[in-house]
Amino acid sequence: MAIANHFDHRKSATAMLSRVADSLYWMSRYVERAENIARILDVNLQLMLDLPKLGAEQEKILWGPVLRSTGDDEDFDKHYKSTTSENVIDFLTLNTKNPNSIVNCLTTARENARHVREQISLEMWEEINRTYLWMKGQTLKKIQKLGPYEFFSSIKNASHLFQGITDGTMTHGEDWDFIQIGKYLERSDMVTRILDANDEIFVNTPTNLLNGGTLQWSAILRSCSSHDAYRKFYVAQVEPDKVVEFLILNEFFPRSIRFCAGALDVALRRISGCQEERFTNQAEKLSGRLVAELNYSALEDIKTVGMHTYMDELQVKLNAIGEAIFQTYLFSPPIAEPEPEPVVETKPEPKGEAVPARKQAQTQRIPKPAKIS
Q1: Strand spans (E) along 163-224
Q2: Alpha-carbon torsion 19, 21, 27, 33, what sign?
């Protein structure tokens, strides 16, 4: 029986299946997020080697898009006074106060894997546990001594190995589908945020710092692990229009938004058993609509709307799909009715106060993290 039917008819099984699906989904998202952050940091460090010595303001310009792409620029400013390579690497790699740091991503992924050890294979658990233990022993001095390139390569390779082990040792049923959903939703979300964070060079290229933008567009491709694939597909110099078209609309590259949206939609329909061009829940409705929009979009449509606006709209749609997945499969309502809380009178909020913006990167909703032994 499909999970969707359990959610409709079996209240006791719902909570159990929701917790399993939630852990598998977020385990996959956080492993993918750790890999993406490691790649972005590595690419930016490599980019600095191709540039002359940078002043404080130029270094801030170079690292600003990295922080914006992870949605952590405001949190960074609260903890650090200057935007330097050392501070950004520390914040996005080892800072436990940053929920999107690599160490926190791997810790949360390992904790979710621990919750579903009966559903995942032994090889998957051993690999994610090994990576977690290795990461917990890292310090900024050790990273500098080992070399940032070797460190970030280890993170990326661990993610690739974990995904390969998952595909090769786990039954490709509903559990595996939730892992695919988490992976492709996180991957497509990161591509939109990388492009959105660098949208300025799409309109106005800073020729004085980055050699006409060629270096930065190449860096964007490498940040999405797509530089070689792009050169093989176009066999031409890196051009902004082609980069955008490749990363958003290419149907064959496994990190393009169009490919990820299609793979996400297929996984959702495998879980419910729903046929194409139909839907049984809000998540399938939104994912199917996004796939159709991307299938019938062209570069001219993106340029007409504007890069920043188009990326913002994509992020909103991806977040809406994530919310719909949560409400359909991951939300576990309490079996017993909770006691009503006493009504407390609150003072009206002063007019004109801005509502705090929601972070771009979605995080797992957990009431209290379990202790890790």
Answers
A1: none
A2: negative
